[in-house]
Design goal:
alpha+beta, Rossmann fold, D-amino Acid Aminotransferase, Chain A, domain 1, six-stranded antiparallel β-sheet, five-stranded parallel β-sheet, 26 strands, binds adenosine monophosphate, binds glycine
């Protein structure tokens, strides 16, 4: 069969890598893709929001399955439009993707369905928001309603910072119309984790747990980025917490979306804050995480194409998902300056040597080919991902490969996975896991 993957990041390289392993697939296209993806897929110069162009391409090439990486395509309604044209596509509809597209919708939805989340208030007026900030006192979190490439959330440790965030979002329109509404939210404590699951609207099939490293610098310092590294599993999500997340978050969300007339199919990613036995939802994403996709897809032993098909055909309960018991870790290598201004077009050295390190795959995120050599072409450039019999070995292999790679200004965090090592006894190799989907009930 022929598969089209939409997107150009490390997540999409990992998707293409995994789809390439399927004996059912004989041709992969990626729009627009990157230089690493080119080795396994034919890259097509179409933007992720050029839905008409993508439909025309899928029809012309008789694509059997389209897999969507980024949220922008989903909130633009790509799934609805492909389906209207009789094309098979994996992902939630535009109505369902609102769980990522509007933070205000999601907070009100969470409240309605009694799904645990931080206390909040919605504002369309700057002065009222600031008055509320004075009443509450810091710390607080200020969030733009709409999509802002991960930058629309400002965790504020002082009242002044929170008020400045209101001005940035609503007066300066730093995130455009995404800031027409904003949320002022209680600041939660704890450890973050990503809980990512497949769902066909009737059952939910969770992937192993994972943890992202959002801050730019070691020790979780500096500004938030798209993610500087990730590992799986996340020991903070014990078996008991995972069950609690299914009961208190995932099942009521899928049930609630059906009740709202927005049936949810595809991938649901809950960003969680975990503090002891307390679990709160920070956000939902309607797609695979990036970089979480890299370590998660490396652990998935089942054919991912079978899972995409089962979601589309609403028979996810038929899938037995096999998971490699070994932990994985992904270290993101970025352009110096990211998430602020950075330079591109720097020649990347050492990729071959890095790929020769045992148990390592180097996923490309922002790369291009210039004069026959790989060059940087984005903020996040590579996701160096390793598997190991325990987390420490995975971390060692990933950093060994990272040590071979360099370009002018390249940077990376040196502490990816370190937080988990304190619980390392829980994430050494266990039994092979086989997961089955859980019915959502009524
Ligand atoms: P979001 O896009 O809503 O997940 O927010 C991005 C990041 O901001 C999260 O990964 C957290 O690190 C942080 N954050 C968001 N909401 C809160 C909150 N209520 N309390 C503390 N940190 C938060
Ligand atoms: N890793 C965070 C995200 O994909 O949004």
């Amino acid at each position: 069969m022929k598969v089209l993957v939409i997107g150009s990041g490390g997540r999409e390289h990992a998707l293409v890598w995994k789809i390439h392993q399927s004996p059912r697939v004989n041709k992969i296209y990626c729009a627009p893709g990157n230089a690493g993806i080119k080795r396994m897929a034919e890259c097509v110069e179409l933007s992720v929001t050029d839905v008409d162009g993508l439909v025309r391409f899928a029809k012309k090439e008789e694509i059997d399955l389209t897999v969507v990486g980024p949220e922008l395509s989903l909130t633009a309604g790509i799934v609805d439009i492909f389906e209207q044209q009789g094309l098979r596509i994996f992902g939630p509809s535009q109505d369902a993707a609102i769980l990522e597209g509007s933070k205000v919708y999601t907070k009100e939805f969470l409240e309605k369905y009694k799904i645990p989340s931080a206390k909040f208030k919605v504002f369309n007026d700057r002065e009222k928001a600031k008055k509320y900030i004075d009443e509450c006192g810091a710390p607080l979190v200020v969030k733009a309603d709409g999509l802002a490439a991960g930058k629309g959330v400002i965790v504020s440790s002082t009242v002044q910072e929170a008020k400045d965030a209101v001005d940035l979002i609503m007066r300066d329109k730093a995130f455009g119309d995404a800031g027409n509404l904003l949320i002022v939210e209680e600041c939660l404590k704890g450890e973050e984790a990503s809980f990512i699951a497949f769902t066909d609207g009737k059952t939910i099939l969770p992937l192993p747990t994972s943890q992202d490293h959002k801050a730019a610098f070691d020790g979780d310092l500096g500004p938030n980025t798209g993610g500087m590294g990730a590992y799986s599993p996340a020991p903070v999500v014990t078996e008991k917490i995972a069950e609690q997340v299914m009961q208190q978050v995932m099942l009521p969300t899928i049930q609630g979306m059906a009740k709202e007339g927005r049936p949810y199919k595809g991938m649901l990613y809950a960003g969680l804050m975990i503090d002891g036995d307390n679990v709160n939802v920070l956000e939902f994403n309607c797609r695979f995480g990036d970089p979480e996709a890299q370590p998660l897809l490396m652990r998935l032993k089942s054919d991912v194409v079978d899972i995409f098909d089962a979601v589309i055909d609403e028979c996810l309960d038929q899938i037995k998902m096999k998971i490699d018991p070994r932990p994985t870790v992904c270290v993101v290598m970025a352009s110096g300056g990211y998430p602020g201004n950075y330079e591109s077009g720097k020649v990347i050295k050492g990729l071959e040597k890095a790929s020769d390190v045992e148990d390592v795959v180097v996923f490309h995120a922002g790369t291009t080919i210039e004069n026959g050599e790989f060059a940087s072409a984005g903020g996040r450039v590579l996701g160096v991902t390793a598997v190991g019999t325990d987390l420490e070995k995975a971390i060692t292999s990933a950093y060994k490969a990272v040590g071979h790679i360099a370009w002018t200004g390249s940077s990376f965090r040196t502490d990816i996975g370190a937080k988990a090592l304190k619980n390392v006894h829980e994430i050494t190799m266990g039994k092979e896991v086989e997961n089955k989907a859980k019915p959502i009930g009524s």
